[in-house]
């Protein structure tokens, strides 16, 4: 039960079914799966967990990740993530998201990739019945 | 407190700051605000509430709406919604979403617009700390 007393963790959702148009595959894995493997091979910042996810339905602009962190935060979806170049940037951005009370990273501090490749965001949940 | 005993409602989020590229404005309202006004002027299906929202950051493909319904359901974001032609279709789809246990409307029953204009979806929440 201890876990329930902790603040909400931040969850990084990684679409493991993503392909990237024009990408030359390094091996048999889909780029989304390779991205997940690369990210989870790195040291994760405190409070972050990484969840492999089936299809986030952003198939034309993969790889795709999402960040969410409980009812008080905006949820963000980011596109065009590169499984080789971007894993550390994604984790750094996830740590910034985790530190932001409402999940909104101040614009000037936001990773350039987040600025240019946010395809959607969902507002905090204000309905107590939807807890 | 009675409300807390009810099942989660379905929330239709309507981006009221959306513009539509090439759209000829009917009046001073942004298309997103007009969409919200049109939707809320109709009879809402049971269990649905409609929430005006600031920028869902799908600005290139507005108008934009999202559907969510508690931790057990997928959240969906839909693009290219027309404020004049689509309000009833959006409400019909929202009713189908509300009826689907996990929010996934069976493909063959899904509105054509939902099939072709889903830009992202977020999976159900499985972390009890994120309640």
Give the helices and strands, then pairings.
Two copies of one chain form a homodimer.
Chain A: H1 2-5, E1 10-15, H2 31-40, E2 48-53, E3 65-68, E4 75-78, H3 87-99, H4 112-116, E5 118-122
Parallel strand pairs in A: 1-2
Antiparallel strand pairs in A: 1-3, 3-4, 4-5
Helix pairs in contact in A: 2-3
Describe this protein's structure.
- The structure is a homodimer of 131-residue chains.
- By secondary structure, chain A is of the alpha+beta class.
- Chain A has one domain: Glutaredoxin (3-Layer(aba) Sandwich), CATH 3.40.30.
- Chain A is built from four helices and five strands; from the N terminus they run αβαβββααβ.
- Chain A has helices at 2-5, 31-40, 87-99, 112-116; strands at residues 10-15, 48-53, 65-68, 75-78, 118-122.
- A five-stranded mixed β-sheet of chain A has the order 2-1-3-4-5.
- The longest helix of chain A has 13 residues, at 87-99.
- The mean pLDDT of chain A is 88.
- Chains A and B meet through β5 of A and β5 of B.
The quaternary structure here is: homodimer
Separate helix tally of chain A: 4
Strand percentage of chain A lies at 15-25%
How many strand segments of chain A?
Answer: 5
Tally of separate domains of chain A: 1
* CATH overall fold name of chain A: Glutaredoxin
**Rounded radius of gyration of chain A (Å):** 15 Å
How far apart are the first and last residues' alpha carbons of chain A, in Å? 18 Å
Helix content of chain A: 10-25%
CATH class category name of chain A:
Alpha Beta
| Chain pair sharing the greatest interface | A-B, 35 and 35 residues
How would you spell out the order of helices and strands of chain A? Answer: HEHEEEHHE
- Globular, elongated, flat, extended or rod-shaped: what is the shape of chain A? globular
Low-confidence stretches of chain A: none
Question: Biggest sheet of chain A, in brief?
Answer: 5 strands, mixed
CATH-defined architecture of chain A: 3-Layer(aba) Sandwich
InterPro entries (chains A, B): DUF1636, Thioredoxin-like_sf
Pfam family, one (chains A, B): DUF1636
């Amino acid at each position: 039960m201890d876990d329930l007393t902790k603040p909400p963790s931040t969850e990084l959702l990684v679409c493991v079914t993503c392909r990237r148009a024009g990408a030359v595959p390094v091996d048999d894995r889909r780029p989304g799966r390779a991205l997940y493997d690369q990210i989870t091979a790195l040291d994760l910042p405190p409070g972050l967990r990484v969840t492999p996810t089936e299809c986030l339905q952003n198939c034309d602009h993969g790889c795709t990740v999402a960040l969410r962190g409980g009812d008080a935060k905006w949820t963000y979806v980011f596109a065009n993530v590169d499984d080789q170049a971007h894993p550390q940037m994604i984790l750094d951005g996830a740590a910034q998201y985790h530190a932001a009370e409402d999940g909104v990273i101040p614009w000037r501090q936001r990773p350039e990739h987040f600025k240019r490749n946010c395809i959607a965001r969902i507002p905090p949940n204000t309905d107590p019945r939807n807890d």
